[in-house]
Specification:
By secondary structure, the protein is mostly helical. The chain is 90% helix and 0% strand. It is elongated.
Amino acid sequence: MAVKDGKEYVSFMAKRFVAYMETPTEERRRMRTEAKSRREPWLAKWFGWAPYGIVMWLQARKARKERTRAASVIKERDMRQS
């Protein structure tokens, strides 16, 4: 019985290999990128969504600070020119 299982496995792997080799390279690349895009971020996968949310919040906070800093620099420049 074990020999039959081994033959079935080899047959299965041969079919998979042939299908892989017959698929064009561009198609394999497209399938790979689609699979990667469907995956959830590693931070969420390992630690849940709470740390991911904190990281997103910190990034937004940093962006807000940069925008306000840039606005204040522009405002000061306009005041000096007046």
